[in-house]
């Protein structure tokens, strides 16, 4: 039991860190431009596929650097020639643009790499056991992911709160005219931020690809959950996204490991529910079966009771 | 977000003016001409298109029209961008299919014609519950809650296999012999049932736009603060609008249950929600008839493209993005744009440039489609050395020639298309200039 709890916590932390890497870019883009980028998970997928393609030629470490840069470049082009044109039609049009983009990227990926998963595995350098605890091995690659995520959080946090670039980024959000008057090219700042955000998503894809499955449906699977993270943590709050990622990662991983059900729990204290009909079904549902709905339940409850989110400062 | 929700402000105003004009445009025919025309089309269409495919296509179009119009009650009229409207379509379908299975001539003898109402009222109950939760907020928060509820319900369907039938869904048999008019064995019977409901729902939803509720929904969309100041509770307006929209979505779901005799979790999924969003937006949210156009076009594309090419979603995505970027007011908006030119009788000056534009676009498209299809074939087929069929020709994707040819056609077509666009813009400016001169 202890072993299950410890490893569920570790894996939950890992999943949470991956979620954070994904949602940090989304948070950045959202807080800067007010655009909820529906295609964000698609950039994550592009990162994984690019990394796979590059690593077949040069190996993992080059891919780790080059793939995010390439995807970031694509992101910038999309912002410059797509999103910026749509901006004048308002936020809903921007949202719909990224919504269509998500469809498009998935189909392009199918067109180039096919529908079946590609063989993108853990790099050989990191394919060993980091430590063994209570008889279970913890792979080094997972430790590597944790390390990268923590580095990313620290770097991002310091950039945004402690540097001049971060200051301009923050100011451009609330007072774009003032920033422009001070001589900064605000559209270009937007373009850089969009590119930066997509590059972060791609970085998550590069290191997340080997432990998830690199296939065309991966964006569709992860897309909704990173929205949960960003909204739950508070739109535009990096710290909130961090806490929400870990929370959702751990809760979901723990829930999967538990097979408690309502009927079983009540049975243990002497109350027996009927085993047939609707109540029977309800009594038989185990915690692990509810795992897929938990994040969305958290999202809906949070939006009802505190639309600002965990650490957010504004509503929309 | 609430203050610049959608580019609907201008276009919807134009649409309303258009509506008012047809009211004034005297006579019985000026007033009801369009509706009579629609009824005739509804009756005659399946008599002309007699193949099985086209009749089931027509049936699906009818369902899509109701669904898209109900979605527009949220997005177009109420300014609520929902990512989970399929919840009501799907749940309505599930309610209807359970009722269908309960029908028997001896016991519970509900006329089959009224089955969609069961779906509608079932969905409306869920609409009231979820609506109460989500309509407290507008804008992005509303959109996010709708996304959450959509995912919640979709994930929830796998938890109650008795209610939702798990992977295989719930199936039923529409031949209950309780129908008032037909026995609903052949598709044509079902088509007329759908057509009837489509007409009733369209009229009902149209009339709803002209009630104080419909007007207040517009007001809340455009300026929530002012609507509150006038004395209306924006949340209440949104709530009622939302609940009514879920009723109509449920009717569409109920018709799906009759049409396909099966309802699966797919019907509540994000894909279905996404496709109704596409239909409504491509048709145009600023105009009442927009979603109807969108439903017709998108359903035809979905059903016919998916039988022609496997990568139809790519073309779909491109169409959607192009619409968002260049015509956010949708098909109806494009038509509305030409109305003043039509009335000034100067549309003929645009016909030639448009024809050239279309021809060059088709040339470019021909090359582009060839490139996409060859690429797709190469990465999805097991053995790329087997020649593929393209435009009725056998093409080997491993040869160089087809690729060069496709690239050449695309580039030349693209270049000519650019020139054609320039010409269209030039003629357009000229026509507008003339009309203004005339008016001055």
Automatic annotation (TrEMBL), chain A:
InterPro entries: ABC_transp_permease (IPR001851), BCAA_transport_permease (IPR052157). Belongs to the binding-protein-dependent transport system permease family. LivHM subfamily. The lineage of its organism: Bacteria, Pseudomonadati, Pseudomonadota, Alphaproteobacteria, Geminicoccales. It is found in: Cell membrane. This is Branched-chain amino acid ABC transporter permease. It comes from the Bacteria. Keywords: Amino-acid transport, Cell membrane, Membrane, Transmembrane, Transmembrane helix, Transport. The keyword Cell membrane applies. The chain crosses the membrane at residues 6-28, 60-83, 95-116, 140-160, 189-213, 219-247, 254-273, 285-305. It holds the Pfam family BPD_transp_2. The keyword Phosphoprotein does not apply. It is a multi-pass membrane protein. CDD domains: TM_PBP1_LivH_like (cd06582).
TrEMBL record, chain B:
Coiled coil: none annotated. It is a multi-pass membrane protein. This is Branched-chain amino acid ABC transporter permease. It comes from Tistrella bauzanensis. Its main location: membrane. It comes from the Bacteria. InterPro entries: ABC_transp_permease, LivM-like. It holds the Pfam family BPD_transp_2. It is found in: Cell membrane. Keywords: Cell membrane, Membrane, Transmembrane, Transmembrane helix. The chain crosses the membrane at residues 32-50, 56-74, 86-103, 115-133, 190-208, 276-302, 314-338, 350-372, 400-421.
């Amino acid at each position: 039991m202890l072993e299950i709890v410890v490893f569920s916590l570790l894996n939950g932390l890992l999943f949470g860190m991956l979620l954070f890497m994904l949602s940090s870019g989304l948070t950045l883009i959202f807080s800067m431009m007010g655009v909820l980028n529906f295609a964000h998970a698609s950039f994550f997928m592009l990162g994984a596929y690019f990394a796979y393609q590059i690593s077949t030629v040069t190996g993992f470490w080059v891919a780790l650097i080059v793939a995010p840069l390439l995807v970031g470049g694509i992101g910038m082009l999309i912002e410059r020639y797509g999103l910026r044109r749509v901006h004048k039609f308002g936020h809903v049009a921007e949202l719909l643009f990224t919504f269509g983009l998500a469809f498009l990227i998935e189909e392009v990926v199918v067109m180039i790499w096919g529908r079946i998963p590609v063989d993108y595995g853990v790099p050989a350098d990191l394919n060993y056991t980091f430590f063994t605890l209570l008889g279970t091995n913890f792979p080094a690659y997972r430790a590597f992911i944790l390390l990268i995520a923590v580095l990313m959080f620290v770097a991002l946090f310091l950039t945004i709160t402690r540097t001049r670039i971060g200051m301009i980024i923050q100011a451009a959000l609330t007072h774009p005219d003032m920033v422009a008057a001070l001589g900064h090219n605000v559209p270009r700042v937007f373009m850089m931020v969009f590119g930066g955000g997509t590059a972060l998503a791609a970085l998550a894809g590069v290191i997340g690809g080997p432990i998830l499955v690199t296939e065309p449906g991966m964006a569709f699977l992860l897309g909704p959950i990173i929205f949960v993270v960003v909204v739950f943590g508070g739109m535009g709050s990096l710290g909130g996204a961090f806490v929400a990622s870990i929370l959702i990662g751990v809760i979901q991983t723990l829930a999967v490991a538990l097979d408690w059900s309502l009927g079983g729990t009540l049975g243990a204290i002497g109350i027996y529910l009927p085993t047939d009909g609707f109540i029977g079904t309800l009594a038989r549902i185990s915690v692990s079966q509810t795992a897929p709905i938990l994040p969305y339940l958290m999202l809906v409850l949070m939006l009802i009771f505190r639309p600002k989110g965990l650490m957010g400062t504004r509503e929309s | 977000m609430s203050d610049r929700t959608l580019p609907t402000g201008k276009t919807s105003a134009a649409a309303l003016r258009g509506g008012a004009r047809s009211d004034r445009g005297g006579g019985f025919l000026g007033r009801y001409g369009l509706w009579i025309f629609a009824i005739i089309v509804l009756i005659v269409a399946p008599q002309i298109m007699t193949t099985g495919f086209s009749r089931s296509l027509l049936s699906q179009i009818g369902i899509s029209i109701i669904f898209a119009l109900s979605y527009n009650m949220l997005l177009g009229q109420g300014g609520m961008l929902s990512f989970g409207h399929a919840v009501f379509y799907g749940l309505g379908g599930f309610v209807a299919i359970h009722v269908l299975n309960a029908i028997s001539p001896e016991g519970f003898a509900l006329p089959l014609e009224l089955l969609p109402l069961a779906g509608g009222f079932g969905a409306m109950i869920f609409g009231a519950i979820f609506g109460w939760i989500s309509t407290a907020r507008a804008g992005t928060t509303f959109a996010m809650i709708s996304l959450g509820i959509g995912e919640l319900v979709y994930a929830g369907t796998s938890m109650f296999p008795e209610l939702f039938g798990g992977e295989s869904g719930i199936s039923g048999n529409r031949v209950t012999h309780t129908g008032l008019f037909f026995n609903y064995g052949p598709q044509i019977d079902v088509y007329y049932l759908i057509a009837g409901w489509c007409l009733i729902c369209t009229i009902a939803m149209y009339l709803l736009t002209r009630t104080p509720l419909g007007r207040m929904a517009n007001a809340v969309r455009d300026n929530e603060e002012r609507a509150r100041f006038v004395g209306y509770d924006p949340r209440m307006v949104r709530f009622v609008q939302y609940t009514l929209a879920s009723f109509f979505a449920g009717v569409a779901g109920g018709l799906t249950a009759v049409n396909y005799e099966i309802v699966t979790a797919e019907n509540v999924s994000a894909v279905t929600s996404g496709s109704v969003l596409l239909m409504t937006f491509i048709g145009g949210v600023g105009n009442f008839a927009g979603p109807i156009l969108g439903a017709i076009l998108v359903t035809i594309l979905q059903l016919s493209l998916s039988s022609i090419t496997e990568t139809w979603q790519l073309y779909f995505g491109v169409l959607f993005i192009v619409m968002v970027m260049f015509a956010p007011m949708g098909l109806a908006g494009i038509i509305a744009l030409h109305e003043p030119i039509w009335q000034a009788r100067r549309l003929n000056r645009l016909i030639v440039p448009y024809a050239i534009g279309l021809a060059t676009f088709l040339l470019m498209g021909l090359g582009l489609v060839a490139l996409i299809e060859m690429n797709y074939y190469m990465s999805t087929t097991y053995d790329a050395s087997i020649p593929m069929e393209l435009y009725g020709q056998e093409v080997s994707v491993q040869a160089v020639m087809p690729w060069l040819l496709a690239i050449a056609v695309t580039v030349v077509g693209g270049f000519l298309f650019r020139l054609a666009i320039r010409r269209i813009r030039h003629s357009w400016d000229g026509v507008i200039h003339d009309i203004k001169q005339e008016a001055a």
